[in-house]
Amino acid sequence: MPHLTVEYSNNLPQFEADKALMALNQALVASGQFEEIGIKSRTVRFDKFLVGTAPTGRAFVHAKLAILTGRTVEIKQTLSKSLLDALQAMCVWPAGLQVQLCVEVQEIERESYAKTSVG
Amino acid sequence: MPHLTVEYSNNLPQFEADKALMALNQALVASGQFEEIGIKSRTVRFDKFLVGTAPTGRAFVHAKLAILTGRTVEIKQTLSKSLLDALQAMCVWPAGLQVQLCVEVQEIERESYAKTSVG
Amino acid sequence: MPHLTVEYSNNLPQFEADKALMALNQALVASGQFEEIGIKSRTVRFDKFLVGTAPTGRAFVHAKLAILTGRTVEIKQTLSKSLLDALQAMCVWPAGLQVQLCVEVQEIERESYAKTSVG
To answer: What is the DSSP letter of C38?
Structure first.
């Protein structure tokens, strides 16, 4: 833990997935909440998307952070804010495009989570 | 908010992602529950999937609607039903294929959700 | 129900998606908790991922099982353990790579879940 999934619309050529993953994982390490090696992050680019009912002019980046149950709302707020800050700092967003940046914190039930490491 | 993700198996050439996104977003606008510009939707097509243990003859479309906490069960039921209706109305499903259409409503914790808009 | 999503990093050529789906679905059938035809599973391979802050040497497979609300923690633990066992048994993981295998159980609210079958 945790799992981070960063989803984004494909009309953001400025979005560099590798750079984003490093910046976001560094923010998670810096939070002090997680073991470095446990942070598993990925990006997903959507070729088919729609914001509202306007086919053009809009974009989004949506980060989902999934953590085990048991943390306070305050810790979760701090985590989502730090990820949002990292997203904002990461790139110069294009003019003429309305970009929504969002961070969601999900909880994974601790009791039924199963994990092992090999290698 | 909200976020909508429509997943579907790749054995549905009848499924038109752009058309589906517009129909579903229009249903969400019509619900009166959301600001039009806040509706962020995407489709994901799965090339690798399996329904039960039968390698052929089955397909699925699964819509996940993620909304902030605080709405009643009745509102959530109305939302999922309207999305299911839109999926059903959207296309002539193929003969000889068993297609499961599903809609799930997820909740995102309001207190820890972080968002900003740029541009 | 249920929905199973198996995510994995793209540095695992040993991971055979079709074989994994069959092994995992068979485990779910064997659990006695689900109707065979209701088990809808898919895999997603991530070309862009990062485990911690180390760009190489690490991999992951993460299975998400989504079931309707109402099952006990014990049943959920049995389900996640059986899926983890199936993942472990499935392939010879590569030497020199640290692979994390994880299984998460999510709940879908029963009252607002909508579903139909066509064909």
So the answer is: G
Give the residue from A93, A17, C9, A51 showing the smallest Cα distance to B3. Answer: A51
Give me the sheet containing C3-9, strands edge to edge: A114-118, C98-108, C58-68, C3-9, C40-46, B49-51
Residue type present at position C2 = P
Residue A91 pLDDT more than 80? no
Q: Does B114 touch chain A (CB under 8 A)?
A: yes
Report ipTM (2 d.p.): 0.96
C47 close to B (CB below 8 A): no
> Chain C contacts of B62, Cβ < 8 Å?
3, 40
Give burial (CB, 10 Å; 0-12/13-18/19+) of C114.
buried
Residue keyed to tokens 């306007």: A54
- Rounded to the nearest angstrom, the gap between the alpha carbon of residue B33 and the centroid of all alpha carbons in its chain is 16
Does an H or E element contain A114, and which? strand A114-118
Whether the pTM exceeds 0.95: the reply is yes
C-alpha separations of B8 from A64, B87, C53 in Å = 21, 11, 33
Across A52-63, average pLDDT? 96
